[in-house]
Design goal:
Pantoate--beta-alanine Ligase, Chain: A,domain 2; 2 domains; 6-stranded parallel sheet; Rossmann fold; 281 residues; alpha/beta
């Protein structure tokens, strides 16, 4: 427990709802960064933005089982509280870390009636049944408890950011702030799942990522963008021997399919060594 006591000098660790509510009650200008652990530079970027924008900043670490549609994926998710706290304690002016247990989040045991609109059952929602319902449920519960002024989310999972923003901002006096995807020096989007790869495998994933990124340049002068992407999908699958779930150009305004370059992004999800990765650009 010594490492926990050492961290308490810089930031306060909140382990239950009573302590959370009592600690945050005096404050209204709170920035919140929700995480499932596996803290990396992408998370740190969000935390620093919150510290700059708000008087108090709180980070949560909670691996939410309700947003996993695979038990294997849930059990293999890379999260170590000790390692995460070691990283977080180095961040100056980070005030609080909330580390709840399942019973603290789902204390009333009520079944959620949150549903995703049919038009948004695309991309990850199409392939991960119940995933975003689980995300919206936990974000709804966390927002009720923390009452943040701002929530900072990365845009690597743009569909998640889009759905959470629409859901939370309609129900709470809270702003969802989207922050650009942080990439490593080889252009790979930072992700907690990257920790699951060996060094050699990570280099291959970086090559695949760069192949996808080059598509953004190629589609600039193409009229039928999504037709081109479907053709590219097969070529990339064959070349790298991977399974691509989707590779589509969509509007960032409403997530509808688009053949326009401006105001759209390429969205993709694929498996490498049974590990699912997503990106958009």
């Amino acid at each position: 427990m010594f490492y926990l006591l050492n961290i308490l000098i810089q930031m306060k660790i909140l382990l239950n709802n009573q302590t959370l509510i009592k600690t945050l009650r005096p404050f209204s200008d709170i920035g919140f960064v929700p995480t499932m652990g596996g803290i990396h530079d992408g998370h740190i970027s969000l935390i620093k933005k919150s510290i700059k924008s708000n008087k108090k900043t709180i980070v949560s670490i909670f691996v939410n089982p309700k947003q996993f549609n695979s038990i294997k994926d849930f059990k293999s998710y890379p999260s170590s509280i000790k390692d995460d706290l070691t990283i977080l304690k180095r961040i100056k002016k980070l005030d609080y870390v909330y580390i709840p247990k399942f019973k603290h989040i789902y204390e009333n045991n009520k079944r959620s009636n949150i549903k995703i609109e049919k038009k948004y059952k695309i991309l990850c929602a199409k392939f991960r049944k119940g995933h975003f319902e689980g995300v919206l449920d936990v974000m709804n519960r966390l927002t009720k408890k923390i009452k943040p002024k701002n929530i900072f989310m990365g845009e690597k999972d743009f569909q998640q950011f889009f759905l959470v923003k629409n859901f939370i901002e309609k129900r709470f006096d809270t702003k969802i702030i989207g922050c650009k995807t942080i990439r490593n020096r080889n252009n790979l989007a930072l992700s907690s799942r990257n920790f699951l790869f060996k060094k050699k495998e990570l280099k291959q994933v970086e090559k695949i990522s760069n192949k996808f990124l080059k598509l953004k340049i190629k589609i600039k002068k193409i009229r039928e963008i999504n037709k081109f992407l479907q053709k590219s999908k097969k070529e990339i699958e064959n070349f790298f021997d991977i399974k691509i779930e989707y590779l589509e150009n969509r509007s960032i305004k409403n997530l509808s399919k688009s053949n326009k370059y401006k105001g759209s992004r390429i969205f993709l999800a694929y498996y490498f060594k049974d590990i699912r990765l997503i990106d958009n650009f």
